[in-house]
Amino acid sequence: MFSILIPTWNNLPYLQLCLESLRKNAVGSHQIILHINEGTDGTLQWVKDQKLDYTYSERNLGICTALNLMAMKAVHPYILYLNDDMYCCPDWDKYLIEEIKRMQTDCFMLSATLIEPLPSRNTCVIVADFGQDAANFREQRLIDEFRKLPKDDWSGSTWPPALIHKKYWGMVGGYSLEFSPGMSSDDDFSMKMWQIGCRIFKGVAQSRVYHFQRKSTERVIKNNGRKQFLMKWGINQSTFRKYYLSMGEPYDGILADPPHTYSLKLELLRAWLKRKLM
Q: pTM of the prediction?
């Protein structure tokens, strides 16, 4: 089945909910690998007591290094990256497995669809409040209602929960360490997949995961991921998402290289000028 990689940073109540959801709500028997950053809130001892598979660092290494460390322990053909503040709804993996079986290739990125309590500019998620923290999580209400929330398959898989074949993880070199601790590392990974020819970036609507939002990113000192992405790839993240991944649009099959319309040429010119000024 899947090798599920979960980096965690002193988020024990959320990690416990996440792992409980994997045990209760998955149809497959997946390998779970944790990376414990610090673990000073009791996470390290709890994971040892649970006899879970993990890697460990005394300081917070960020998600890029953590994911690469965990990926070395993966034994299954598919790697799924999951955050520790996510709760997987019933049958979440069933729909991803069914999607894989329908594929004519193993070169793809799939994402489960997130349900988040707070509105944002992310058009790929479902906004529905079932609790903004672990203490106030309305689990049973989520179980009763999550299937009724309207959402169709969407284009632009990049954020976790993200699923790819393990051979492509190795081919693109995993997550790029220059984006540590992790801002824009997801877009960078998707761009690397694009560069090797991947054209299937699909969000699976029926595979649903509740996300408490920003339980680690609000604490970390952020890298300037937008600038790093521009300097590395020569285009802005927003351009890549809109013109290449068609992010948030209804899924319409295998993506094509974007036509060089006037608007895309203008975006590329602006990116070139901005890069030169930097």
A: 0.95
